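Summary of Year 1 activities. Much of the first year was spent building the evaluation harness for sequence design. The harness presents a backbone, in tokenized form, and records the residue chosen at every position. We chose the following record to illustrate the format because it has been used consistently in internal testing since the harness was completed.
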């Protein structure tokens, strides 16, 4: 069968149900994006075009989401995701991926090309921070808008699940308030810029001696509190919370990287590679990244204590190397730019040191697991297909085995798309973690029905 015949067959089974209001909303979105694009052509920016474009785009997206999801009954529908060009690595997906990747490349290495866009949001920057905008403020603003507006989409899409409603509201809150407003308000009041929702080793420099020294010497008590907060949460809070709730408390509820993946990246979650080779690459990359940042932190402290007499500039070289290859290229360019091609959790799965740290704790010390009821499984494959971390959930379900994987972020989507209620996210006694479902204690606390 030719490609044209396949497309014709696909259209017969999945006809275009876009109505006039949805088409009007998408047209308005295109106009809004055009106005945003035009605002960047002038060296001094064009505030009116930027404001109008953002407002028009937001209204258009809200209208489209409202119409798309509320004209159908509640429930997750994944029909046709492998037949759409935008979600099956087709032409639209590649164009989107090239655009996102190009945006990050220009942002990091040719920010002068974005001068017009940056100047267009100066009024907002002066209002929130008291200073003119820069490329990172532009990026933070667009990033936060993406999490919030696509979070609204997730609220519509998963409105039948209380768990996902609360989880989505959580990532929206932490990104908007703790990762956007609070850091910039701190600058407004002449305090150090600090992101309280990011911890070491993800925010790797927060425990570097230079950052610690800078924060401690900051006038007032806030700097000392920030150092205390980072150390306590990173070294004590993370293990304790992970013991009780698994890595999901952070990766799926708090982290900004996970927040973008769960909202803007949701249409691409099924693209994650489920092969054993991908799992081998995951193990081969993510743990060395964690080891690299631990080694870098230790070397910097040794250098600091010895006054640089032992290692000289070697430790700084480690830090700069990590910041360039991991902090910029991996987490930014690849981590987000490759959403439409490799799925929404490329960075979280293959490169994030925080995910590696949490994963070790989850697999060996946590009470968290996903239990399965193999007798009810019909092998539909929805759970594996929808797993953004590339876990073959169906295999565990068929065997009736609990899922205890270091890579699992506990998003709960596998349980949500299961038509038979085979999967449950649970926190139970540690001695029962690896037992088949039939032997799990009735004392377990089920937190996802």
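For this record, the design step produced the sequence shown next.
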């Amino acid at each position: 069968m030719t490609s044209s015949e396949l497309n014709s067959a696909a259209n017969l089974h999945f006809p275009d149900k876009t109505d006039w209001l949805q088409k009007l909303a998408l047209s308005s979105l295109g106009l809004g994006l055009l106005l945003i694009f035009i605002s960047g052509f002038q060296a001094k920016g064009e505030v009116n075009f930027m404001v109008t474009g953002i407002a028009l785009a937001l209204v258009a997206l809200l209208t489209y989401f409202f119409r798309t999801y509320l004209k159908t009954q509640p429930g997750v529908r994944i029909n046709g995701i492998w037949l759409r060009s935008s979600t099956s690595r087709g032409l639209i997906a590649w164009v989107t991926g090239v655009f996102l990747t190009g945006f990050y490349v220009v942002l990091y290495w040719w920010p002068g090309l974005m001068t017009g866009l940056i100047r267009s949001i100066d009024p907002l920057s002066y209002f929130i921070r008291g200073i003119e905008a820069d490329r990172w403020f532009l990026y933070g603003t667009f990033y936060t808008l993406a999490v919030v507006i696509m979070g609204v989409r997730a609220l519509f899409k998963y409105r039948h699940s209380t768990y996902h409603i609360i989880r989505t509201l959580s990532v929206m809150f932490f990104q908007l308030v703790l990762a956007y407003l609070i850091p910039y308000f701190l600058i407004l009041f002449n305090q150090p810029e600090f992101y309280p929702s990011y911890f070491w080793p993800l925010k790797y420099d927060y425990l570097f001696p230079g950052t610690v020294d800078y924060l401690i010497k900051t006038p007032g008590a806030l700097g000392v509190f920030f150092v205390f907060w980072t150390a306590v949460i990173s070294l004590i809070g993370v293990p304790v919370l992970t013991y009780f709730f698994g890595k999901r408390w952070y990766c799926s509820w708090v982290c900004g990287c996970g927040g973008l993946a769960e909202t803007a990246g949701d249409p691409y979650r099924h693209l994650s590679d489920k092969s054993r080779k991908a799992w081998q690459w995951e193990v081969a990359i993510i743990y060395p990244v964690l080891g690299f940042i631990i080694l870098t932190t230790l070397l910097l402290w040794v250098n600091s204590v010895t006054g640089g007499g032992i290692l000289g500039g070697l430790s700084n070289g480690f830090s700069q190397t990590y910041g360039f290859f991991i902090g910029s290229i991996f987490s930014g360019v690849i981590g987000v730019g490759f959403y439409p091609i490799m799925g929404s959790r490329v960075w979280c799965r293959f490169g994030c040191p925080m995910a590696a740290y949490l994963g070790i704790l989850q697999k060996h010390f946590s009470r968290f697991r996903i239990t399965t009821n193999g007798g009810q499984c019909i092998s539909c494959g929805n759970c594996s297909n929808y797993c953004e971390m590339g876990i073959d959930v169906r295999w565990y379900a068929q065997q009736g085995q609990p899922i205890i994987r270091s890579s699992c972020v506990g998003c709960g989507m596998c349980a949500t798309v299961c038509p038979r209620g085979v999967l449950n996210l649970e926190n139970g006694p540690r001695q029962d973690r690896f037992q088949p479902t039939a032997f799990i204690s009735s004392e377990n606390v089920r937190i996802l029905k």
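DSSP finds 20 helices and three strands in the chain. Quantitative recovery figures across the full test set are reported in Table 2.
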